[in-house]
Amino acid sequence: MNSDIEKILVSEEEIAKANERLGKELTEEYAGKNPLFVCILRGAAMFMMDLIKHVDIPMEYDFMDVSSYGGENTTTTGDVRIIKDLDTSLRGRDVVIVEDIIDTGYTLDRLVKLFETREANSIKLVSFLDKPSRRIKHVKVDYIGVQIPDAFVVGYGMDYNEHYRNLPYVGVLKPDVYSTK
């Protein structure tokens, strides 16, 4: 797998530092509250599990699986589908949506609107990676781990065709890997 990576964008050490910083910021923001962290599967699972180790307040979490890609696509279709919905009610809750990467903004735009209809008390967004050059839908990202350039990245939970999620860093996938399949 490592031989398919053109370059490492975010090292294991940088990942750890970003998670620690974000965890401290979220601890301060939600002191005295019991926020519900909503992990957007599958890409954000590794990030959320590492992140919440640094959140030093009572909190709960749930999982939601949505897709705007599918299969071997490397760009979003813009059609956001809910594959697995939440098991927890959002009514009156302070919600923190945890995402692996903000790209076009389609997914989070749809989720914020959906969560508003479910009467969440507040909704904040935390994303490990931010790729602002690709933004189409404006979404306010409250907490960002690392800002990256426009590149197709894998690792640390992010995949290409369900592979590379287990890499301990974020790397740029060589174009010949996904252009020949």
Automatic annotation (TrEMBL):
Q: Top enzyme class of this protein?
A: transferase
Note the coiled coil stretches, chain numbering: none
- InterPro entries per record: HGPRT, Hxn_phspho_trans, PRTase-like, PRTase_dom
Q: Which Gene3D superfamilies match?
A: 3.40.50.2020
Q: What is its EC number?
A: 2.4.2.8
- Pathway(s) annotated for this protein in UniProt: Purine metabolism; GMP biosynthesis via salvage pathway; GMP from guanine: step 1/1; Purine metabolism; IMP biosynthesis via salvage pathway; IMP from hypoxanthine: step 1/1
**Main localization (coarse):** cytoplasm
What cofactors does this protein use? Mg(2+)
| Domain Phosphoribosyltransferase: residue ranges | 12-160
One of the entry's Gene Ontology molecular-function terms is:
hypoxanthine phosphoribosyltransferase activity
Q: Any keyword Plastid? A: no
Catalytic reaction annotation: GMP + diphosphate = guanine + 5-phospho-alpha-D-ribose 1-diphosphate; IMP + diphosphate = hypoxanthine + 5-phospho-alpha-D-ribose 1-diphosphate
Keyword field = Cytoplasm, Glycosyltransferase, Magnesium, Metal-binding, Nucleotide-binding, Purine salvage, Transferase
Region forming the signal peptide:
none
What is one cellular component GO term in this UniProt entry?
cytosol
Where does the UniProt annotation locate this protein? Answer: Cytoplasm
Any one Gene Ontology BP term: purine ribonucleoside salvage
Similarity remark: Belongs to the purine/pyrimidine phosphoribosyltransferase family.
What does the protein in this record do? Answer: Purine salvage pathway enzyme that catalyzes the transfer of the ribosyl-5-phosphate group from 5-phospho-alpha-D-ribose 1-diphosphate (PRPP) to the N9 position of the 6-oxopurines hypoxanthine and guanine to form the corresponding ribonucleotides IMP (inosine 5'-monophosphate) and GMP (guanosine 5'-monophosphate), with the release of PPi.
Q: Tell me what this protein is called.
A: Hypoxanthine phosphoribosyltransferase
Q: What is the lineage of its organism?
A: Bacteria, Bacillati, Bacillota, Bacilli, Lactobacillales
